[in-house]
Amino acid sequence: MMADGTRGIAFTGLFALLVVLMVPSVSASDSPVAIAIHGGAGTIKRSELTPEQDRAYRNILNQAVDLGHQRLAAGVDGIDVIVEVIQLLEASPLFNAGHGAVMTWTGEHELDASIMNGATLEAGAVAGVKRLKSPIAAARAVMLASPHVLLSGVGADEFGAQQGLEQVDNDWFSTERRQRDLERYKARHSAGLSPEPTAKFGTVGVVVLDAQGHLAAGTSTGGMTGKRWGRIGDSPIIGAGTYANDKRCAVSATGHGEFFIRWHVASDICARVAYQNLTIEQAATDVIIGELLPAGGEGGVVALDPRGNVAMVFNSEGMYRASIDASGHKVVAIYNSQSERERPEGD
Ligand code: ASP
User: CATH number for the domain including 133?
Assistant: First the structure.
């Protein structure tokens, strides 16, 4: 005979089990998840990358997209997946974000980042930070732990420190490659020449659809080589470099920030999805190819719609990019699609 208390516990356990079986679970496995990543757009020709460099970029893009997809499939919140994936890219010297960020005119690093939650339209961003090791983590902290959207400069560094985020010396971000880029930039500038046509941008960005059905977007960058006077690009500007709205789409941009700010690229793409009922591919193409290209605004975007369809559109020679859409289709690519098709087997 069961004691009354034991019988009560057994009954409650059975009831809980029935509830679990009856309520349709939003478990990771039966909800579509999707992710798209960029590592910057620009003049990226096959002839300019050695096979080793080509492989190194593809390896880390692969690693990043797989990591993000696994986390999403396990049900991790989209915002946390974005931070984790971008931190992997910020730590790589290959990209213009975190370690490996480009240099300002004075040989320093000033970093920008932003993040947006498509479910709540909450957003956070930092601009011109010099000491925060992970600008994307700082952007998330602004979103979650401050009443503001965008913090800049010394104040943003101070806020990050108060939040317990890791601080580094500014030269932690430096690499020899970026030092050489700055020297070339200055030499061309004093010769009255425009910046090198081969200049690559190299910002990183991630958009996700998580297992809870929410979109999110994030972007992190060192900005543009030789920038001066506290110049800030599109990456920390919500609506320009980053935007997410569950009802519309999620976008992260890379390219010549001055154009992306004035064309308000990320939110314009999502507005076209909402008001013109366009597919994400069409909306992104209309803005990047239809509007920016004739205006001379070089760059591209990665974007997702609420069903997990991916668009990766650019008007430059190439864009480091990777995606896994809601059906599980995976893409890792660098050059334009014609050039990707011509890749020798095993290259
Ligand atoms: N959009 C960035 C900026 O203008 C640069 C980039 O995408 O690499 O600061």
Answer: 3.60.20.30
